[in-house]
Amino acid sequence: MDALRFSFGPPPTDGPFSFSVDLPEGNYDVAVTLGDPAGESETTVRAESRRLMLEKVRAGRGETVERTFTVNIRNDRLAPPPQNAPGGSRVLLNAREAGALHWDDRLTLEFLGARPRVSALGIRPAPDAPTVFLAGDSTVTDQPAGTYYSWGQMLPRFFKPGIAVANHAESGETLKSFLTELRLAKILSLMKAGDWLFLQFGHNDQKEQWPQTYVDPRTTYAAYLRVFIAEARLRGAHPVLVTSMHRRQFDGGGRIRDTLAGYPEAMKAVAEAERIPLIDLHAMSAALYEALGPERAPLAFAEEGRDATHHGHYGAYELARCVVEGIREKVPELARHLAHDVPRFDPARPDPV
Length: 353
What we know:
The chain is of the alpha/beta class. Helix content is 24%, strand content 24%.
């Protein structure tokens, strides 16, 4: 496919606007020219289901700013299995995913901010760009609407152009369901040597009331993690484990209660035994929530804090910064791809709400 180029006139209002184009699945470098000859502008760019790509890019009156980012798009199709072989030709999507922008054959971009302005846009295939695949649950997925956000959909903003984040996480997922619904099969069909596979599971895997997908932290949880790790290594990719963040449950002394019942410890043991990087989001989230305190911590969560598991925009952004710090410390090969404008972050000293 040749590069595509588009030009834009002034938008009808100062509010958000979107752009969408049919494209085959894959990675693409997107170059945008932002700015307005008639006034100052401030533009944030999101891709697909609200994946944060560029944050508050400012341009003065008559100025233009050129930025590039790399975005991943996909569909739910798989190569059909050979005759009489198990498997399937599509990922088994759930009802929540019907019509989702991150599963169609299109690239969708959203331009928003105080005064969003884009004058030109170019799209070029980037088949050789390394990809960071994310596998996990609702705290990682590209949340498509409402007050819900995740660290996974904030993560692309923190990378330079030339590397893509492919977020395959989904609400309700477990290690077992990720296999039976062919979500891991989809990732493996796209994975190439030099890619990364980030794994964060635990919140749903611990639910004994879900007997079809429950895994014991002392035995089967570790065994399933090793399957994912082995499949990534077989393809020359780099597995990275991420412990699940805490739920927002404080004790009387303002400390976070651990509700994950041994799963983070089991993941740490696997990482040590397999000699692979581990990002301890479990510990960093405790530091973050306790720094905010019981009164202000709800501001980091969805539904105005009524949800104590899932995060709002602020909380998802702060957790993404935690993951970025983990990349800096534990995944130096990937850290080389981090954007230059990302300062160091201490979860015990979070950004202002």
